[in-house]
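Tokens as discussed.
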């Protein structure tokens, strides 16, 4: 029976996050998949300074339960109720919505992180590396330490890593200081020591190959495997929110999402349409380096009148919002995959997205527009408002298909 060391660092350290990111969801999906396989001897681990410590299976199972709950919060909370009313009866709402945090939420996340780290440091469970075992890391975490993959490969362990994107390396201006160098070390380590690399798209695999060529590193052994869509977006279409036309944009508020541009488009739309301007709903957490967006959200009169900002919505609520929208908008400068676009297409909702490689690869049926073409975006949005964009037929990627490819890459059959 094959031994699999699964890196659960992200579950371990971020299980208390109120709004899971796309990578959080990937880690959870892999954790459940590997835990459910009777033909695998699973050893959950977490990495620290290039070394692995074990996690008891009981603790791992508790993390799975808690993270599953976090990934699907209640759909009928106050944020959903307020947003539904604001979209259904816009004339009765005197102010647009702004994202709120649950009281104590930040402290709760920080406290959970600190407690996990302290507990692990006090009681590390050292593991004895077994030759021919697999090490699976799908969250980038810990790969920045050059020792980790080199040590595993030297011990005869076969490292398998998922690379989600090369954004910090190629677009450092969109990331926090120091992120570019950390991610460069991850890519170098993966290319030198990984037994197999899984990517979320062909575009990411091509970026890995380009990086390898530019740095004189071995060509990557890549298996491109599109991520799966959550069941909520694949089952019978959810009841759409019945409301006058509105648009949605889903994702963390951060520079690469190009939201400052989208808000500028909405200002121009408001100049043309006045009181008839449709609402725009931004669904996501506030990220980093986003002062230009926050200034518009909090001080621009047209944006204050026409743009809602919410977070902590459950999958069912997000699916209902997307299903009822005139279109989902995604003007990102760069993406490794872009799950919200795929979810919207799965729900047959029109999508207007930036004309970038991953959208050309995966977003069949979307209206693609250059991310800096203001007139083009205005024209596409007005076409959607008039009902002139068809609801696309789309074959959604599934987790079942993803894990078939992943199993083949891991040699698990």
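Sequence:
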């Amino acid at each position: 029976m094959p031994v699999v060391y699964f890196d659960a660092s992200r579950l371990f350290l971020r299980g208390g996050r109120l709004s899971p990111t796309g990578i959080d969801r990937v880690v959870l999906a892999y954790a459940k998949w590997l835990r459910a396989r009777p033909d695998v001897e699973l050893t959950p681990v977490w990495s620290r300074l290039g070394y692995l410590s074990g996690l008891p299976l009981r603790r791992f199972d508790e993390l799975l339960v808690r993270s599953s709950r976090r990934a699907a919060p209640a759909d009928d909370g106050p944020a959903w109720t307020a947003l539904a009313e604001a979209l259904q009866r816009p004339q009765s709402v005197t102010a647009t919505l702004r994202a709120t945090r649950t009281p104590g939420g930040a402290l709760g996340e920080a406290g959970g992180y600190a407690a996990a780290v302290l507990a692990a440091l006090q009681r590390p469970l050292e593991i004895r590396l077994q030759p021919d075992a697999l090490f699976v890391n799908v969250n980038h975490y810990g790969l920045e330490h050059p020792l980790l993959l080199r040590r595993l490969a030297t011990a005869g362990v076969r490292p398998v890593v998922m690379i989600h994107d090369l954004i910090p390396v190629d677009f450092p201006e969109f990331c926090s200081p120091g992120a570019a160098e950390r991610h460069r070390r991850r890519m170098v380590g993966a290319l030198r020591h990984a037994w197999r690399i899984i990517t979320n798209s062909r575009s990411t695999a091509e970026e890995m190959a380009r990086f390898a060529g530019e740095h004189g590193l071995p060509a990557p052994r890549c298996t491109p495997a599109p991520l799966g869509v959550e069941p909520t977006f694949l089952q019978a279409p959810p009841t759409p929110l019945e409301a006058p036309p509105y648009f949605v944009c889903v994702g963390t508020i951060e520079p690469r999402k190009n939201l400052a541009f989208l808000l500028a488009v909405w200002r121009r739309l408001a100049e043309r349409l006045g009181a008839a301007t449709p609402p725009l709903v931004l669904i996501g957490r506030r990220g980093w380096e986003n002062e230009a967006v926050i200034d518009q959200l909090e001080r621009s009169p047209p944006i204050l009148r026409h743009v809602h900002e919410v977070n902590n919505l459950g999958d069912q609520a997000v699916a209902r919002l997307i299903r009822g929208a005139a279109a989902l908008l995604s003007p990102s400068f760069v993406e490794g995959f872009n799950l919200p676009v795929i979810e919207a297409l799965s729900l047959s909702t029109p999508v207007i997205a930036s004309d970038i490689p991953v959208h050309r690869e995966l977003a069949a049926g979307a209206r693609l527009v250059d991310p800096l073409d203001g007139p083009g975006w205005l024209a596409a949005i007005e076409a959607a408002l008039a009902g002139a964009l068809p609801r696309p037929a789309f074959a959604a990627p599934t987790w079942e298909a993803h894990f078939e490819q992943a199993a083949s890459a891991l040699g698990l059959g």
